[in-house]
């Protein structure tokens, strides 16, 4: 089976239990995750061999990251040890009209302190067929951006498919005024991209006419402009999330490939147990779909949407459902939701 | 007041807290229940004297069953002690598009090891007016099926009304290829039956035209065929559950008696806290209704549906609402749902 | 900034975790609140200096009240110590068609045992601009009613604005057959009143034609009759709650001022995490709005409705959101409900 | 088997989890107990048929009392319904040098409001051989004291053995200045008494020479004076608790009968999980011992001490060990403490 | 580094939280363990490559076993899938004079249903230097005993060192009256054995003079008799546990090799957090010591005792401390117990 | 009453529940504390008006610090807002021979980024009589050290008493090789110092003859050398902790003033619930004692030891007992440890 390598930061996530606000919490639920690790774990759970490349501190919290990746069967040969601290983020879990809140506390992390030359990219990518990165890694520090570029270049050189989730986060990108420059170099080597209008705007100033992020047509127009700018992109995808409230969204996706656009079914997500990692689970589903069903793009897209629809019912960063669970949902949601006994 | 005896297995239920998946759970919530015990507990909570006939091991877990039944005021004279183990089941509580999952671990239980002659049926049923069994008991082992038949025959002999919830479970019935044979003998002595199209099909190969389990008309047609096959049945009922997702169902019921069919109001169940035991709570409501309002079948049916609508808001196997709670909901759901203070 | 003083009882609230019924609970979540304290805490969280006047016992539970008020920055100079016990209430948190239940256990509390002369009203109200009381205080005991009247009179004498939430509770008012008499004297001095048709009926026998509490027009008619009876009322408001089930309500409000009536937007509250304190959070939002935007009544009304819509997503008695959170929701709910990161 | 009836109040106990202080607790563990109910539950768990006579309010909390007693198999025919509230007590669980704290909140309870004539004592005591009361019941209110006296008189008349745990509590006895008078009348009819020097002093002004409550000889001297005052007492017992700290006590007992004094073995209790109910579990063990081994007083005493030593390892008010567990400890503590597998 | 393979069953352990009794528990803590898996996990945590050979069912609970082993870095190539159920055990955690209780529920497990030929022993043991089994595997079923013998024979053939923890459990061994026969054949191939007087007596009828299991000399005498019977044993070891109560033991060990006996230091274990797995952690420490310090038996023995002393402070079956933690304790307990900051 | 100002960092503390190891924790208990804030909170709880000077980020976690200080009545006028993050520390709670572990994550915190001129020391210290700082503040960053010196100088100028807890932490002091230089300047202005031999050695290279940190004489000798070096010190104190294991210590203290040395009683701490903050609670007790009993140094010392003995029974950083609790323990530990009811 094809093998996938992912590169990114793993953080400790500290979330308030139930729907407590930060000021109410006397306990935090702890788990470990990050945009790209969520992809690696979901792929491993789908049965796709995946490896993870990151850096963690040499303390008990860093070790928890090793344990968590190993537990799900993700390869940990690429987990480097060093640096000062594990990045953290705090999550206040919203409900109804009260949105979830994230407080990042990831500056000066072991990952952010990665420097060129630290990772033996050739060894780490050898034997893999796909390399996945996201816009978060180049955002955390200049040196991490450089390391990310090392990886993307080596992946290209070794002939791997390269995918990226643009994942623009306004609170990151502190070290530069021109994310565009950094991202352009990386994007020019990337084959599959997950991007939404916000990403396209903030990174590349791309905007289509008649701004309406809830409109599939507008999303498609943005993707077309993006592909125009980066003709190396083979597959461009966007998720279509409409937010009724923090507990209730609708969810779908749109794919653009060779001028052809495909639309997925729409899922009505209600209630949402945890929407963090929704996009990551979509990305994992997409990679799975493209690897396993390369000739059926509609299937690949639908698989990705169904997989991530299921993720919204799972607490924690990572999607833990299997291929059979996704397939069951694709057959029909009411069948899927009956008690399995 | 009329007295009801129920026969069946009581298991320890180990459910994941919140909506955790099995692989995430570090704790399990424990409670005790089973299809028929749920009926007995609900009846006792409605104020109907009920007794329970079962078998549990002579250890601390078996004792928990005694305590739980006693706590709700269910008669425990019929709880026999012996055998190797208490049956268990594990429950992963779903949400949204992720369905709940049940892993049964009930083989070789004290109940499954029941053998003819172990229960003094005459003593246990004396002084009762109604006997309730379900399709689960004959499914767990051949000897349990034989014991169930002993009970049904004695109940008939003593002049009790006999009710059954067909409750087909594909994971049980391991010991025989012909459940039909076993069930036919039992059904021929039964007066009131709760059956859905799936049960009718799997047990008796009964199927009506134009298969659509969400269609009341189809359900009625199946009930008519069932009653045709078992003319001894006085009252046949089916619940009508439409599954939007694991957290959202619609809920109603249909009754067939003397060729006349009655339809209940429809309840929109959202959110569902726990749907396990939904059918059992309906059965308890039905028995209550038929005993207390024998001349008003529509009331009996509506009571059963309202009672079980409330059950979906309660964690655990058993329905713990009282007659007054059900009556309040029957008056109008918006009144019922206001804070009582 | 203008300062607000509130008078009322603070109770320990003991609520069942999750959606457990009283009989299932082996633990109770504890917090501290009461109709008027909820107003004071919400105002302090909005940045409005607020003080609280109450009485608690001289034990560790009474001290918890001090700590909780101080924690949110509410002034505690008016917290008197004495009496026998802290009032309590037990809350069973409903879901779906099962309503929440409240068991009051507040008789003989330190607050109920307040007697005229105990509070130095002049000192406590000095330097304040607004005084808030609710119909609960005169309901708990005759002497508390007399103390409340002392406060209202002193507030009037010192030139404070006076507001009241009528808050009729049928389980209180044990000491008299004529709440009307008590309330009439208090109302005659009050400027701003929050009242719904139930309050108006039970206190003053006021009923408009064509009873329909879900109809804004009916609510407006009642408010008009109320203002007719108490021409001193400058602003009369009612909340419009429609109860689909215990987890799903719609929520809006209507204001009557100088013959002009204003209607707020409607919020669809689903799911409701905790509706206790919903009206109190509205009252706090209203006072904030009237103080900060005295010339824009529509804004004040809309602020109050949005603030209390958010409260329904927060466990506990008090609304803990800030002005910026409310403003974000007023801009549009789908924007508000996105993850803030 | 001989049957025992107990009379007293059942309260809801709200204890802080872990060793939290009141001001730290955001949750309270809830259970139900009281000095005399703890005796009844322990006896039922020993296999001695026991009945309980009390009064609880007609609400869901009162029902929890019913459920809890039934669960352990205690007869509930004597549980009357009525009155305003269930008595409560709050418990802060100490550790090391920090002692546990109790805040009683039991005034005006349904039990305290019991009045003469409410209990049909003849019916309740019929068929029983032993009646147990404690000094707490006459302490809560004058009318409860009168009801207690009714019970003791009827028990005497019907020929039951009567036992009492003196249980002096300084925070109770609010209604009278002379507990002595009340207690003297009750004690004059009592056969078996559990009393320590504090009880003897506070109730009857009894003090021996050379005050030292840790000295068995001093305790024996007090018991001799007590029996001198009440020659009707056949068996007088005291427990000998030495407090090293809140987590570490030593524990023994001394019995005086017909001038003969017996001393039990000493148990070193470390750690103590919960010492509330320690004396009650001793009383239950003593009644069991006297009923089952009437001719071996040393065995009865040792049984009571061993039973209550085990109670200190159990969270909650009531002792839940069985006769076999006690017997195992009596054989030797190191054997008892091995893992049973 | 030398590699160790272990063979045995992994069960789900369901333990009561805090020190609750079975009848009090509404939740169970879940973890996964078993005598031999505990050894493999501890070795992996010490940095010794270890593999595990077992069989689990093809369901979500079986998968939890995979995840748990992988998490700690134990090789899972030898985990076979099949059979009906995962073995369970329930644990009531004792305290003070109340001992812990175990209820096994492991009959008919996937492991117990292992049959000869199922495991490719040659492939599983290839590349390993040490094979560990315990007396529990041959005790669960005849076929498991046969599979165990297959493994031991293959290990011998491939030249591995073989160790065994005798681990006699009276509740197992249901299938035969002569465990001795089964065990003799296995023991004749074993090099290192952990045995206590109870094991020696129940398996082989070995008893020395002057029975006193707390006396090191008696233990040594038993070991000498055991080695006399099985001259192939190179190293025989016993742990010396003295039980003051369930929370307080003393702990040491004695080794016999070539007629020479060595005694370890004694550790005073107080409080004990969890003594389950104490012997397993000793065994892991011993294997580590013998592998890493083959020429310093005293060090190996002391390491094993210190490692297992630490285990008693850890909740769960497995010892999770590292070599450095053990070394710190060996340097002196008071140093070890200071806060590390 | 005299007023005390304290200066230092407040961190979020994330501790594993029960005695879980970091790798086992799925939840962390959260509280807020720091060496100097613990002093301020304890003083406020003793009734001594205290103020706190610190800096926290402008986010919800920074606000939790405000709330926590306010809750205990500590003055928060000196809490400045700014900087990037709240400092954190992770705590693994040990037991028996397994020591507790701390992982600091406080670099780059809002407090560490304090710079000279940020704090208006004159305003903050006005009206106070005592200023307390600890060796932790100058250790976190050079600029924090400079700010600390500003404070100490202003305190001296305004005539406040100045106290310091040396609190050497090897993991801090990253910015300089000569802590001695920094500390010497600060110490030269300090009146009361809490120092142990480790502090004296690491900061100032002070060592007495015959190194034995458990020996009071050795500790006294070190204090004499320290006072020799800093003749401005009026009162030098050291705590005497002997560590039997992580759950069991002995605890006392020694004071040196004007050549006279005083020794406190010794407390046997068993079990220890939480030893973090033990020294801080001692410091608070000492300040209280010196302020309230300036003429009875032995009382002041004994009060400090008793107060901190109680702290060891409380989970969390801060001591929450009152003066009356301490006084009760000083009267005799067995009296103190009885249930207060």
From TrEMBL, chains A, B, C, D, E, F:
Gene3D superfamilies registered for this protein in UniProt: 3.40.1190.20
Keywords from the named record: Kinase, Transferase
Keyword DNA repair: no
Protein's UniProt keywords contain Transferase: yes
Domain of life from the UniProt record: Bacteria
Limits of the Carbohydrate kinase PfkB domain: 1-316
CDD domains listed in its UniProt record: KdgK (cd01166)
MF (Gene Ontology): kinase activity
InterPro entries membership: Carb_kinase_PfkB-like, PfkB_dom, Ribokinase-like
Entry similarity comment: Belongs to the carbohydrate kinase PfkB family.
Protein name in UniProt: Sugar kinase
Species lineage: Bacteria, Pseudomonadati, Bacteroidota, Cytophagia, Cytophagales
